[in-house]
Fold this protein.
Amino acid sequence: MRKRFTGIFSRLGLLIFIVITTLGVLFVVVTYNATSDYYQASTQLLNKDIAGHIAKLSEPYSKEGIDHNKADSVFNSTMIISPNTEVYFLDTMGNVKYYYAPDSLIKERKVPVDKIETYLSDNLHLIKNADPRDPGTPKIFSAAPVNFHDQKVGYIYVILAGMEYRSVAEFVFKSQIGGWATKMFFIIILATVVFSFFYTSRLQKRYNHVIHILDQFRDGNLNVRFTIGEKDEFFPIADAFNKMVAMLDDNFTKLKLLEGERRIFLANISHDLRTPLAVARGYTETLLIDGSISRPEQESHLEMALNKMMQVEKLVLQLFELSRMESVDFTPQKEPFVFSEVLQEIIRGTELQARSKTIRIDCENCEDSTLIDADISMMERVLQNLLENALKYTDENGYIRIALSRETGHLIMRIENSGALLSLQLSDWINDDTGEDTIKRPREAGLGLALVKRMLRLHNFSFAYFEAEKKNANCFTVIMDSYIRSIS
């Protein structure tokens, strides 16, 4: 597989070579054309008056027509002094009427007049026109009108880069500029090859490093990381990979923690279910085996078995409810309500059980009319579980004290009860507010507290435990966001 990827960098190097070579050729061509245009434009500008001087000196036109003697003298002298020039006399339509050259050299006997007129009106820019000897290649020129009795009768038309110039220019280009351009071209090619080789080799080395790290990750090494600087070409990939691996490592750690917690949870549930079922089974078997049991004892046994079965049913319902709330798409059905009204109703429902153990329940500021935005049924379950938990672990002749208070934007409920303090492991689990369950649920944490913690977390309410100021007293605190301050 790596050989195939190596081919990618070979093709990349070839692509770089082709691109730079093409740019090198274009540079040579553009440089030559720009140099040639510069030379021709400067030559045309420097010789812009040559046609006017020839027209003035030769006066080629008279009453009888073209004065061949004058024209020959000036035309011949001009071409001797400047062999690269070609001098022609054109009529007003651009037809070649006179020239100093053999007829066999003239291949085109008409020159476009519009470019001559453009040149006469603006001779500061490079303008080329047809060459009668070489009509296929436009040349730079100089032109001037020929007047007779204040009437234009034609033009003096001078080709400034004639056949001789072209031959010499081609020779110079081949021997000087062509040689220089060839040398520069090969220098560019060599530099391209060297650059492409070193750059693709560097990329190949970095790429192999990336593949090596990915291979380690594929083999299960979640501790592998890239150590690539921000200026490296592969830094975005390396940075994304490092973040992904860190996230996966964190998720795997949480999954392992969750797996251990679930094992403990299942063991606790199994114990919680087995105990009442074993008791109910014992009383039922006693009724079936011992026929001498009196009627009142039978009713007592049946009542005990029924209570244990109801206890099992409650545990199953709590387990189902906890499983439902741990679903990803579960959301509380929130609405505004007065929290104290629900609290008073739950307290009234537990008074009978409290009296049976001679437990005093006090509620401070329970007439508070602050509204909260929450799921009513879930908050009822929270209060019911907390009160039942307090009643269960409060000794006879003990007390349960509930208090409501307000802070800015919050309603705070405190539930304090006398009795043995919670273990450090259980209190740490309750006070873990990271939202990630980083602390394992202890064995003594029943479904009731698990449901309370889950429900309050779904509402983003705070839940905490601490030792009360009185000795051997527990205190649970719930901090809720108030919907409005008060309706009182």
Observations:
- The longest strand covers residues 473-484.
- Residues 2 and 211 are 9 Å apart (CA to CA).
